[in-house]
């Protein structure tokens, strides 16, 4: 589905790997390893300095950027909503391609387990957990094929993080989404991931199935990381 061929950018050195359809890939590794940089290459928030990225077999830069950002949705650590109501935020992406269907908010809010009457509330007046759910619903409004998640629960308290993780898991399973998630929490990686990419100093040091690779690490670097 997405292929990196000899990609370098900033801290990343010569990365080559594939994310297949329905993979639930977890990018993990020490701080500064290049995980966020790598995630941002998937939807062209960054472009390779060297090498090539393919989306469904096509050079990624040939996919119109609006289409790419709809099909490859991104959810960040902290909600980044626009000023306005929940509904304004949900409509934003689809409106760019005239694909918003009136009433679509009902399903979207249901997906993220928020009550429908929240749609007219100002997003500034919502709790952090509610805002993160709205951010997720806004990403889903674009009907993404791939979901990029950059530590989506790390800014939330334990209970809220657990709820959002549960919502994510259900959505990914129900919609057969392909997922690429950065997380520092190995228990979360075990619960959500099927494939692990362990990053170390800008390289993919080790890959494998999850949770297996966490129980049987091969490289010294991964062993050390898991002991920290
Ligand atoms: N284009 C660039 N050129 C040089 N350095 C860069 C470039 N882009 C990012 N970096 C640096 O590379 C390092 C890794 O960044 P990145 O945020 O991708 O790591 P990370 O693994 O996500 O870390 P964390 O877990 O702390 O979020 C950072 O120190 C960043 O400043």
Automatic annotation (TrEMBL):
One of its GO terms (cellular component) is membrane. SUPFAM superfamilies: P-loop containing nucleoside triphosphate hydrolases (SSF52540). One of its GO terms (biological process) is phosphate ion transmembrane transport. PROSITE patterns: ABC_TRANSPORTER_1, ABC_TRANSPORTER_2. It comes from the Bacteria. GO terms for molecular function: ATP binding; ATP hydrolysis activity; phosphate transmembrane transporter activity. Signal peptide: none annotated. The keyword Ribosomal protein does not apply. It holds the Pfam family ABC_tran. Keywords: ATP-binding, Nucleotide-binding, Transport. InterPro entries: AAA+_ATPase, ABC_transporter-like_ATP-bd, ABC_transporter-like_CS, P-loop_NTPase, PstB-like. Residues 2-226 form the ABC transporter domain. PANTHER family: ABC TRANSPORTER I FAMILY MEMBER 17. This is Phosphate ABC transporter ATP-binding protein, PhoT family.
């Amino acid at each position: 589905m997405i292929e990196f061929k000899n990609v370098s950018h900033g801290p990343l050195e010569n990365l080559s790997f594939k994310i297949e359809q329905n993979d639930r890939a977890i990018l993990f590794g020490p701080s500064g390893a290049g995980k966020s940089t790598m995630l941002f290459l998937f939807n062209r928030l960054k472009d390779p300095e060297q090498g090539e990225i393919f989306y469904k077999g096509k050079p990624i830069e040939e996919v119109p950027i609006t289409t790419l950002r709809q099909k490859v949705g991104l959810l960040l650590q902290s909600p980044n909503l626009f000023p306005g109501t929940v509904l304004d935020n949900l409509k934003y992406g689809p409106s760019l391609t005239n694909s918003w269907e009136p009433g679509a908010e009902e399903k979207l809010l249901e997906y993220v387990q928020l009550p429908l009457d929240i749609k007219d509330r100002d997003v500034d007046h919502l709790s952090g957990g509610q805002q993160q759910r709205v951010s997720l619903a806004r990403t889903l409004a674009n009907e993404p094929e791939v979901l990029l998640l950059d530590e989506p629960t790390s800014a939330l308290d334990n209970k809220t993080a657990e709820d959002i993780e549960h919502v994510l898991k259900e959505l990914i399973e129900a919609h057969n989404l392909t997922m690429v998630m950065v997380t520092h929490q190995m228990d979360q990686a075990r619960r959500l991931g099927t494939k692990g990419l362990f990053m170390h100093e800008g390289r993919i040091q080790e890959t494998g199935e999850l949770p297996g690779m966490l129980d049987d690490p091969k490289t010294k670097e991964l062993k050390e990381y898991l002991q920290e």
